[in-house]
Write a structure and sequence with these properties.
heterodimer; A: about 170 residues; Rossmann fold; five-stranded parallel β-sheet; 7 helices; 5 strands; about 40% helix; globular; B: about 525 residues; alpha+beta; Beta Polymerase, domain 2; Cytochrome-c3 Hydrogenase, chain B; five-stranded mixed β-sheet; binds iron/sulfur cluster
Chain lengths: ~170, ~525
């Protein structure tokens, strides 16, 4: 057990300030603003449901990274939830595969109003490398109304963070 | 090889030996013997590795026919069995009765190309409802845009196996799962907490990769291959490029081969760290999750800094690589190895000595050695259940022909074994990485590929972080792709989950699933 505590103490707190992650002084202001908004409008917690509508799983890897100790998304009061019924935001990745079309619609319907949709990654934004075909409907906005787009293949955690902050800024 | 040839001929099967597709030999047999040939190969302990079908038209064939391929393997040897069936009667005996691994592959070929395998499972697999029964997207006359105008209804009527009896109940899970994870459906039959039966239903993220590959140029195919499964972007891009380089008879420069291996080992390191972290997360050992997750992020950041992409997408290109390493970068990567080793030594001691971690990992989700043989499992799933396979050692491709790869094998087949096999592979990868950096030769990093002739084909086989990856490429006119088939190792490992979960309790499913960590995108294509 002592080894574990020792390691924890030695590791310290690697979580980075938003300013360092985004290398943008504007962001600290944005971060504070967001936190204020979340506190006020969402009683301190904003819930995101991630939906893979056909991705190659690259986007998922970077979304996962948002929860690692460096980015620690939860410090802004933002967390990923297991059910769309608990969600304020749907974060959708991938071109929408036709086999996921109905599941994506139902997930959207199951999300209570008010709700926002973020298209995450080039595929979700414009169809990306897969485009539209017999199997794929391309961009998320071909299926659902989209509020914010975060391009990138995949977007880096920093780009994701900036996109999320932008979304919150619009709400 | 000779033994198989003799046994086939003795059984009255006419074998035509075709020009080889390195690393494989190519034999053509009559279609009516397709099943029997599998039976014989299976009895001689050949492993079933990959299967795909193709329609061959144009200058390559006067009368269009369908060609069916099955790649068989023994340590260090590959044999591509081929047969052809006429278009007006595309059917042949199934190999699935002898090779479990052929089952989903044959169903995939039937759903997309309309070739019927007699004696196999007749249920659809990749086809849900985006195209109708009787329509076959991989046929040349099927338009890439498809024919569906209206919304695609969900595939609700899939005939899952049902169980009956007092207290037996069914749990449907997915396609949308609770976590940040790919979509797929799992159907559990349980009594109390114990799982009696599990059936997987995938195909939700089918994006038409094989269809949209046709007509691409080499670089375009390479980009697509790098997105077959995002977590294996290096592995699939390498395999696809190797296939294209075989087809154009080009050898990549030695420095490029080294750089490719550096990328591949880094991909292995990042993914194994992440899987080990996630396994610990699923047993609520969050200390391990966050610590190993931190190391993974360090590796990804180094990737971003040195190679310009955190997941290393599009760094491998036809003919070589699109990265360069100067001395400072080599030193930086080298120092990272020491840092990682130091941290891993500390962390692994903590994990190993924690009794409650051991309690959850050992004897959970056991894949018996017999099952691993029967299913043809590869990578860490196979290694943890006694399957001593690694392409880097068994059929080395440059630069691994200059290195020695130590392959860890365990026999217990439980979640713990899959955890520790990953750890050992991770240590091997770190050692290889150091050797690659030390011996990195000078020279060019890329050569141009000539425009291949129509009909030129190639096979690329590499050891991805999940195990053996097979990539097949055939060119059409003007150097454009006519057929691309990537076989992710997950094809062979997904069925293992259905076996190893039996008799475990429902709450153990997440950690069992994570210990296999099949790619959905990689098999749905
Ligand atoms: S944007 Fe890139 S990483 Fe994300 S799903 Fe598409 S191909 Fe994969």
């Amino acid at each position: 057990m002592w080894r574990q505590y020792l390691k924890i103490l030695k590791t310290g707190i690697p979580t980075e300030s938003v300013r360092k992650i985004l290398r943008d002084p504007e962001v600290e202001r944005l971060g504070a603003e967001i936190k204020r908004k979340i506190d006020k409008r969402f009683a301190g917690s904003l819930s995101i449901r991630e939906v893979d509508a056909g991705s190659c799983n690259g986007c998922e890897l970077e979304i996962h990274a948002l929860n690692n100790v460096y980015y620690d998304l939860e410090r802004f009061g933002v967390h990923f939830v297991a059910s769309p019924r608990h969600a304020d935001i749907l974060l959708v990745t991938g071109p929408v595969s036709r086999h996921m079309e109905e599941a994506l619609r139902r997930t959207y319907e199951a999300t209570p109003d008010p709700k926002w949709v973020i298209a995450c990654g080039d595929c979700a934004v414009c169809g990306g490398e897969f485009g539209s075909s017999y199997a794929s409907l391309g961009a998320v906005e071909n299926v659902l109304p989209v509020d914010v787009k975060i391009p990138g293949c995949p977007p880096t955690p920093a780009q994701l963070l900036a996109g999320l902050l932008k979304t919150l800024d619009r709400i | 090889m000779n033994e198989l040839h003799a046994t086939l001929e003795n059984a009255g099967i006419a074998v035509t030996i075709l020009p080889p597709l390195p690393p494989g030999e190519v034999w053509q047999i009559p279609s009516q013997d397709w099943g029997q040939a599998a039976q014989i190969a299976q009895s001689l302990k050949w492993r079933w590795s990959a299967g795909w079908g193709e329609e061959i038209v144009g200058a390559q064939r006067a009368v269009p026919r369908y060609r069916v391929n099955a790649l068989l393997a023994k340590p260090g040897k590959y044999l591509l069995l081929r047969t052809e069936v006429p278009q007006d009667n595309p059917q042949l005996p199934s190999q699935a009765p002898y090779y479990h691994a052929a089952d989903r592959s044959e169903r995939h070929t039937r759903d997309l190309l309309g070739i019927h395998f007699l004696g196999g499972d007749t249920r659809r697999w990749t086809r849900h409802r985006a195209w109708e029964e009787g329509e076959f997207p991989l046929r040349c006359n099927f338009p890439v845009a498809g024919s569906r105008q209206e919304a695609t209804p969900p595939d609700v009527a899939y005939p899952f196996l049902q169980t009956q009896g007092a207290g037996v109940y069914e749990i449907p899970v997915g396609p949308v799962h609770a976590g940040i994870i790919e979509p797929g459906h799992f159907r559990f039959q349980a009594v109390g907490e114990t799982i009696l039966h599990l059936e997987e239903r995938l195909g939700y993220v089918h994006k038409g990769i094989e269809k949209i590959a046709t007509g691409r140029d080499m670089l375009g195919l390479c980009r697509l291959a790098g997105r077959v499964s995002g977590d294996t972007t290096v592995g699939h891009a390498w395999a696809a490029c190797m296939a294209m380089e075989q087809a154009t008879k080009v050898e990549v420069p030695r420095r490029a081969a080294f750089l490719r291996a550096i990328l591949a080992e880094r991909e292995r390191i990042a993914n194994h760290l992440w899987d080990m972290a996630s396994i610990l997360n699923d047993i609520a050992f969050t200390f391990g999750y966050y610590q190993l997750g931190r190391l993974r992020e360090d590796v990804l950041r180094t990737n971003g800094k040195i190679f310009g992409h955190r997941l290393l997408m599009d760094r491998i290109v036809p003919g070589g690589v699109a990265v360069e390493l100067d001395n400072a970068a080599v030193r930086y990567l080298d120092r990272e190895i020491d840092r990682l080793r130091r941290e891993l030594d500390e962390l692994v001691t903590i994990v190993d000595r924690n009794a409650s971690v051991g309690d959850r990992l050992y004897t959970t989700g056991v894949l018996k050695v017999e099952d691993a043989i029967e299913l043809g499992c590869v990578g860490y799933v196979g290694l943890a259940s006694g399957q001593d396979l690694d392409v880097r050692r068994d059929r080395p491709y440059p630069p691994y022909d200059e290195l020695s790869v130590r392959v860890p094998v365990e026999q217990s087949g439980d979640v713990g074994a899959r955890f520790w096999v990953r750890y050992k592979e991770l240590r091997t990868a770190l050692r290889l990485l150091r050797q690659l950096l030390e011996r990195l030769p000078d020279g060019p990093t890329r050569v141009d590929l000539a425009v291949p002739e129509e009909g030129a084909e190639g096979l690329g086989i590499v050891e991805g972080w999940r195990g053996e990856i097979v990539s097949y490429v055939r060119f059409g006119p003007d150097g454009k792709i006519a057929r691309f088939f990537p076989r992710d190792p997950s094809w062979l490992n997904w069925p293992a989950l259905e076996r190893l979960i039996l008799g475990n309790i429902v709450p153990e499913f997440p950690v069992c699933n994570k210990s296999v960590n099949g790619s959905y995108s990689g098999v749905d294509l």
